[in-house]
Amino acid sequence: MAVVSAITFITPLASSMFAPAIPEVMRDFHSSSTTLSSFIVSVYLLGFAIGPIFIAPLSELYGRKWVYIVCGYLSTAFTVACGRSTSIGMLVAFRLLAGAAGCAPLTLGGGSIADMVPAEQRGKFMAIYGMGPLLGPIVGPIAGGYLGDSAGWRWIFYVLAIMLAVVSVVANVALDESHHPTLLEGRARRLNKECGEEGKYKSVFRSELPAGEVFMRAIWRAGVLTNHLAGIYGFSTGSVGLSYLGIGVGSFSGLLLFGGLNDRLYVRLRDKHGADKPEYRLPMLTWACWLIPVGLFIYGWTAEKHTHWIGPILGTGLVGVGLLATFMPIQTYLVDAFPFYAASAIGANTILRSAVGAMLPLAGVPMYQALGIGPGNSLLGGIAAVMMPIPYLFERYGERLRERFNVNFD
Q: Which segments cross the bilayer (predicted)?
């Protein structure tokens, strides 16, 4: 799990580390397009929507380990190419490819946990695994801001590539295969070889068919927070990176809350009703979701009225608590509902979440320019508030929906 969490740390780091250096990139390539500046960052998330289409099924056909390793080396190469880019088009293309390859740990992490951890302990291990995706967005903008100031934006990519190469080599040496059908298939092949009877033993999990990520954080990663705090409070590139600590500390608090409570709630409900149900992961969702619109309103209107900078930071902190305290139960719910196909379930979730996360920032800057920070955040908070009944509906009717629309992956 430590190796998986370390790998998972790098991908969110890469998505956010670049954001504070966007103004320098736009100057170097002689562009002033706000839409393009947002897309340079958010195209990485678009890669998250493409990668799982291939990564999840490959991991369930051939195992987790080699998918982690191959994607790590590919992401390293594409990240170096980003640093060597000579045009915005080249940078965008390699950011897309780096995101598609780099999303492997985010797609496969839940599947690895389903492989190794029993249901009653998965909340705790999902929280440990979540440390990587949490620390990445906290450290990324801070490190990227100061590294961009001192060495230039290209060195952000070179440092990321070095880190990716190191963790890929460590994974190659230290990571063991955890996917049970792949392990059984390997055991069957060994038995066939020893017995000299090809095809006598086979995994019961192997199909006869031929082998054939709450989107609001994406807005801040794409540079909207950078634009707001630099424009209103005159923050430098490095100081803008520090402003991400608000949502980072909030996310860390949400992760601690989830890790401490989710398994306890699950075990209590299981003992009370005498059955294991994935829906027992969802009660935390029903009360944590209201923190997101409240945090958006605080962030928007304190920035709109030019209050002390701590106001917007506190608002983003509340959003961070809400994001993690809703996101992690959803991930664990998917792992519990589809234990043998957790990578595919989380991959499908990642595709939808990342596609929205990649496209929405393109409208974010024009929206704030047209409405202002306060009304713009009120619109986002209103959308989040309208969606608040959804967790209650899933908690109440989720089991009925799963039974009615049973999915056969084979």
A: 37-59, 66-86, 126-147, 153-175, 242-261, 282-303, 309-328, 340-364, 376-394
Write out the DSSP string of 144-156.
Answer: HHHHHHHH-HHHH
Where do the domains of the chain lie? Answer: 2-195+216-404
Contact, 136 vs 16, CB < 8 A? yes
Residue ranges in the chain modelled with pLDDT below 70: 1-2, 119-120, 134, 178-243, 340, 343, 354, 357-359, 361-362, 405-410
As to burial, measured by CB atoms within 10 angstroms (0-12 exposed, 13-18 middle, 19+ buried), residue 209 is: exposed
Backbone dihedral region for residue 234 (phi beyond 0: left; psi -120 to 50: alpha; all else: beta): left
The model scores a pTM over 0.85: no
**Per residue in 231-287, pLDDT tens?**
666 666 556 666 677 777 887 787 777 777 878 888 888 888 888 888 888 888 888
Cβ proximity of 315 and 249 under 8 Å: no
In the chain, DSSP finds a helix count (H) and a strand count (E) of: 20, 0
DSSP 8-class letter at 405: T
Domain 2-195+216-404, classified CATH 3.30.1490.100, yes or no: no
**Paired tokens of 140:** 């990324």
Contacts of 107 (CB under 8 A, 6+ apart): 51, 52, 55, 56, 59, 343, 346, 347, 350
